[in-house]
Amino acid sequence: MSATDPLAVGVLGYRFMGKAHSNALARLPMFFPDAPAVERHTLIGRQEEPLREAADRFGFERVATDWEDVVDEVDAFYNLGPNFVHAEPSIAALEAGTHVFCEKPLAPTLEEAEAMRDAAAESDALAGCAFNYRFVPAIRYAKRLVDDGDLGEIRHVRGRYLQDWLVDPGAPWSWRNDEELAGSGALGDLGAHTIDLARFLVGERTGEIREVSGHLETFVDERPVEGEDDSRPVTVDDAYAALVEFESGAMGNFEASRFADGHKNDHTIEINGSDGSLKFSLERLNELEYKGPDQRGYETILVTDESDPYVDHWWPPGHVLGWEHTFVHENYEFLSSIAAGSDFAPSFEDGYRVQRVLDAVERSDERGERVSLA
Fold first, then answer.
1. Sign of CA dihedral 372, 369, 158, 330
2. DSSP secondary structure letters along 241-259
3. Which one of 167, 223, 247, 289 counts the least CB within 10 Å of its CB?
4. 3-class state of residue 96 by DSSP
5. Residue 1: is its pLDDT beyond 80?
6. Could you list the residue range(s) of the whole structural domain that residue 27 is in?
7. Do 184 and 118 belong together in one domain?
8. Torsion angle in degrees (nearest 10) through CA of 188, 260, 230, 362
9. What's the pLDDT score for residue 143?
10. Contact 167, 221 (CB under 8 A)
């Protein structure tokens, strides 16, 4: 491949995340003209008829029903399948020298995440983990405040991720309710995002999470199978809560639930420091609440100025962005890193670090005691 050739991208998965990333790839040349040229090369899935229909809609030239036919034929392999297919295809792609972008959580288990991390370390290819909330402009703004010392010494980090799509006990069973397929429930699906944001925002000042006390709960033990007169057991958590301690001594408390009635996609994070505080909510993702040392209360900062992260690529100041734009930003950064031969974060190492915390929460719940990550 020459420097002027487009990057050939193969994508495994064409439903929720496949659609989100395919949309991002399509938007890049319009709004990020300095992004590398991309060829949407092959879309991969199991069922050929819906796969071909999706490929036509998403702008892919080819389809394949076996990822093994693709990983050494493309420049970048996007692994957007369910958690249980993250490890094997990603490792195979890295061994073939193909760059890999894998959805979160990195794997269903810590052992698989470790194998993926090791494969990335041994490969010359780039390996990125798709924690898209790092690429919200307001989150980038928040990180700058923390890094610049505007909050002083970090004391507390609070994060929660609340949804309500499983409140109804009649909601159908899916792979996300199965431990073998997903690894965990709300913990891995939602909690992984919160833990990654905490590491991203304060990690340079607090160090890693060193101790965890966790609790998991499953409220509905089985769910009906859609289209069948049958039900299947739920073998993952519906909600989790964790108290954590960072290496600096800072405290954290995290929770997530799929049973929080009235919350559709409520991801919030709050950081309290010796000199100030900040708050962010995904449901108001163009805003950041900030309190500095000389303020009596919080001010709301609208993060839509052209000088704010990524905003100059989009609309005039004040014209807000949305959830889908985070995928454009992360794809821009990942593909630009490939073209430049530079590092990308979040990496597989970052995904592994998050997985260590998820695993510690599970072990703490099983043992009924505090767990050290040392």
1. positive
2. EEEEEETTS-EEEEEEES-
3. 247
4. coil
5. no
6. 7-133
7. no
8. 30
9. 98
10. no
At 309-336, the pLDDT tens digits run 999 999 999 999 999 999 999 999 999 9
* Per-residue model confidence (pLDDT) at position 4: 73
Tokens 């036509």 belong to residue: 56
Q: Is residue 327 part of a domain?
A: no
Which of helix, strand or coil describes residue 71? coil
Q: How far is 173 from 233, CA to CA, in rounded Å?
A: 8
- Look at strands 299-302 and 287-291 and give their pairing: antiparallel
Looking up residue 121, the CATH number of its domain turns out to be: 3.40.50.720
* Six-digit token string for 87: 């490890």
Verify that 258 and 150 share a domain, yes or no. yes
Q: Distance (Å, rounded) from C-alpha 144 to C-alpha 149?
A: 9
Torsion 337-339-342-343 (CA) sign: positive
Rounded Cα gap, residues 11 and 128, in angstroms? 14
Q: Is 46 exposed, middle or buried (0-12, 13-18, 19+ CB in 10 A)?
A: exposed
Percentage of residues of the chain with pLDDT beyond 90: 98
For residue 237, what are the CA distances in angstroms to 27, 178, 259, 371? 36, 10, 11, 19
Residues 6+ apart with CB under 8 A from 93: 71, 72, 77, 79, 99, 100, 125
CB burial of 218-243 (b: ≥16 within 10 Å; e: otherwise) equals bebeebeeeeeeeeeebbbbbbbbbb
State how far the Cα of 44 lies from the Cα of 61, in Å rounded to an integer.
Answer: 11
Within this chain, do residues 146 and 246 fall inside the same structural domain, yes or no? yes
Answer yes or no: do 143 and 117 share one domain: no
End-to-end Cα distance, the chain: 43
Question: What is the distance between the alpha carbons of residues 109 and 117, in angstroms, rounded to a whole number?
Answer: 12
E strand or H helix at 272, and its extent?
strand 266-273
Q: Which residues pair with 266 in a beta bridge?
A: 162
pTM metric for this prediction: 0.96
Residue that the structure tokens 């040229």 belong to: 37
Residue 13, in any domain of the structure = yes
Instruction: Give me 108's structure tokens.
Output: 């269903």
